[in-house]
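User: Can you model how 4'-deoxy-4'-aminopyridoxal-5'-phosphate sits in this protein?
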Amino acid sequence: MTLFATVELAPRDPILGLNEAFNADTRTDKVNLGVGVYFTDDGKLPLLRAVMAAEKARLEAQPARGYLPIEGIAAYDNAVQNLLFGADSALIQAGRVVTTQALGGTGALKLGADFLKRLSPEAVVAISDPSWENHRALFESAGFKVENYRYYDAASQSVDFAGMLASLKALPARSIVVLHACCHNPTGVDLSTEQWQQVVAACRDNGLTPFLDMAYQGFADGIDADGLAVRLFADSGLDFFVSSSFSKSFSLYGERVGALSIVTQSREESARVLSQIKRVIRTNYSNPPTHGASLVATVLNSPELRALWESELAEMRDRIKAMRQALVQKLAEHGAGRDFSFVLQQRGMFSYSGLSAEQVERLKTEHGIYAVSTGRICVAALNSRNIDRVATAIAAVLR
Ligand code: PMP
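Assistant: Here's the modeled complex, given as structure tokens:
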């Protein structure tokens, strides 16, 4: 028997599978709402002007390509902390936040997971029901048992908050709770300020370890407003983790620009925690890549480029909101026969549309419109040219 003779074919990634089917579809008016990226109104992946300016400056400077420190570019790590915790954060000043550059938000989650596995090998990881599909796989591959906590209530198209609290309270102490810091993927349904306060209290009362996943800062209400959950946990005195990503907010998906931040009790504790995270990095990929993080650091540390980036981010945020408005209005015009105003309350790139798997299938076969079978659609893939077709098709499959 040769080495690979018994290797099983792994299941296909459902979203990548959808993209393949979309690419193979020959209809010229097909629309892909299954993706998880932001497109401009022209249907293109944007290259931000702030990024182009930083890239030009970097090329002109012709920097040598040495290794970075294991924890990444210091100016980048500091800029990440300021965005997440606020520039005037007492925790940062007290040396209680450890931040390391990571390979996107995914890489940050994995670094945190590997470190946590050494700290609390028996801990259970709880993720929202539903959650980003990679959360479960990622924590399971780090060796954890993964459970769901109640989150989305399909009947009310909002959070089953009583259910969520009950789930959190039932978890054993030391359990790790993965929370979407804003713009919940896949539902678009976030917690209110009061609900976040209660989640913080539940984590404290039950000795849980919060792990905030911040993949969309700036896509709901703005950079600082979207930092609300992180700031509430920062005020709580708890130890917690934050994975963050610039994939979406800088449109730098393929450059893999993210970070892991860990809040500790003291500067001295931070030094010990950092030494362990560096060990995880060193034994996985030694040190992070330079290009993307240096662009982000340049933009965030230059007042001019930062202002430009903030305006470009606001443009993305506003366009998504305009598409939510247009979708709701056009669905009504096309006689969808259902109240879709909940779409306006959802935040970020996604919307749980409430469409069934069967209706999603009909959208694809009859209309060439691709969405995830759960009914998740990417609002950031709607534009002024496809919105009418999408609304007409949704109304048709609902009749
Ligand atoms: N967490 C969530 C909730 C996400 O939606 C995503 C990206 N789709 C990630 C993490 C991963 O981000 P990245 O592409 O930067 O690895």
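A couple of observations from the model: Residues 303-333 form the longest helix (31 residues). Residues 36, 104-106, 132, 180, 185, 213, 215, 245, 247, 258 surround 4'-deoxy-4'-aminopyridoxal-5'-phosphate (CB under 6 Å).
User: Helpful, thanks.
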